[in-house]
Specification:
CATH topology of chain B: Ubiquitin Conjugating Enzyme
CATH architecture of chain B: Roll
Shape of chain B: globular
Number of domains of chain B: 1
Number of helices of chain A: 3
Largest interface: A-B, 16 and 18 residues
Helix content of chain B: 25-40%
Largest sheet of chain A: 3 strands, antiparallel
CATH class of the domain at 55-62 and 70-109 in chain A: Alpha Beta
Pathway (chain A): Protein modification; protein ubiquitination
Structural class of chain A: alpha+beta
Largest sheet of chain B: 4 strands, antiparallel
Shape of chain A: elongated
GO molecular function (chain A): NEDD8 ligase activity; ubiquitin protein ligase activity; zinc ion binding
Order of helices and strands of chain B: HHEEEEHHH
Keywords (chain A): Acetylation, Cytoplasm, Metal-binding, Nucleus, Transferase, Ubl conjugation pathway, Zinc, Zinc-finger
Number of helices of chain B: 5
Radius of gyration of chain B: 19 Å
Oligomer: heterodimer
Distance between the termini of chain A: 75 Å
Region (Disordered) (chain A): 1-20
Number of strands of chain B: 4
Organism (chain A): Trichoplusia ni
């Protein structure tokens, strides 16, 4: 019983109320982020996002039948991705991935 | 920079006269120039303390002079000027570099030819040119030729390397002779 008495005394110090909240959240905005599901999202050759047309094609403004810029992405066996246009220019002189120096072979192509 | 951007826009809006070869040259130049807009800025922001760059014509980003003033090693006290010319096929091909200051160095001959692996167009190993390299890497490489990348094992100026292997004092004296000769 004496223990309870002490408790009572302690509460008395806090005026017998719950402690004040540190802060109250009055309003909040949700923000969502997204990114392409690829290991390297910028073409290391022309430094443009692989999902956009490469620097060369942007200059030419080539369009495919859907009116979109026809500049596809290529993934190597090493999992590095580049614009097909950029990579085909480079492999003409050196058939290696410029990022990891592995022999370049195409794993898949597309968007 | 602003003027170049405007120039690029103008090139794109100009009507084409069906001249395919002229068009393709303009296109190649513009890819290089677009890369240069980014890379020159990046190079300036990452310039080593021993380096400075100068553009003779501020509207031409493809030609500049790099000055390296080493603060340690055999070439300390010297100032070495390199002309860097970024050709139209950049970044599939490395910039062309020539040393304008006569110097005694195992990897730079007295004609100004520079032996630096990353400037090599065709290379079997990973040290050669790759389109993933940028201007700042070239500056870093040339700067490091006086320190970390100094290589007596695979010399371009064989005489200089042999002198170093035989007599380091003689080599040091000759390096400093070239520096003082250059200052006169």
């Amino acid at each position: 019983m004496s223990g309870e008495d002490y408790d009572g005394l302690d509460r008395g110090d806090n005026d017998g109320q719950k402690p004040d909240k540190m802060f109250t959240l009055k309003k909040w905005n949700a923000v969502a982020m997204w990114s392409w599901d690829v290991e390297c999202d910028t073409c290391a050759i022309c430094r443009v996002q692989v999902m956009d047309a490469c620097l060369r094609c942007q200059g030419e403004s080539k369009k495919d039948s859907y009116g979109k810029q026809d500049c596809v992405v290529v993934w190597g066996e090493c999992n590095h991705s580049f614009h097909f246009c950029c990579m085909s220019l480079w492999v003409k002189q050196n058939n290696r991935c410029p990022l990891c120096q592995q022999e370049w072979s195409i794993q898949r192509m597309g968007k | 920079m602003i003027t170049l951007n405007r120039k690029l826009k103008k090139e794109h809006t100009e009507p084409t006269n069906g001249l395919t070869t002229a068009e393709s040259i303009v296109r190649r130049i513009s890819v290089r120039d677009k890369l240069l807009i980014k890379e020159v800025q990046e190079m300036n922001e990452n310039l080593p303390a021993t380096c400075s760059v100068h553009f003779e014509d501020p509207n031409v980003l493809s030609e500049f002079i790099l000055t390296v003033a080493p603060d340690e090693g055999y070439w300390q006290g010297g100032k070495f000027k390199f002309t860097v010319i970024v050709t139209e096929d950049y970044n599939m091909a490395p910039p062309r570099v020539k040393c304008q200051t006569r110097l005694w160095h195992p990897n730079i001959n007295v004609d100004g030819d520079v032996c630096l692996s990353l400037l090599r167009q065709t290379s079997i190993d990973e040290h050669g040119w790759a389109p993933t390299r940028r201007l700042k890497d070239v500056v870093w490489g040339l700067n490091a030729l006086f320190t970390d990348l100094l290589n007596f094992e695979d010399p371009l100026n064989i005489e200089a390397a042999e002198m170093y292997n035989k007599n380091k004092t003689e080599f040091q004296t000759k390096v400093q002779d070239y520096i003082t000769k250059g200052k006169r």
